[in-house]
Amino acid sequence: MHFSSTTETEIRLTLDAIVELTNSVVSGQADVRSTLASRGFPRAEAASQASIERLTARLRTLAALFSTLPDLDDPTAVSWVNEELTELHIAPSIVSHDGVGPHIHWTPSTDTFDNQVLADLLMALAQELCENGTIRFGRCAAHDCEDLFYDGTRNRSKRFCPDPKCASKTHTAEHRARQRAD
Ligand SMILES: [Zn+2]
Ligand SMILES: [Zn+2]
Question: What pTM was estimated for this model as a whole?
Answer without folding.
Answer: 0.89
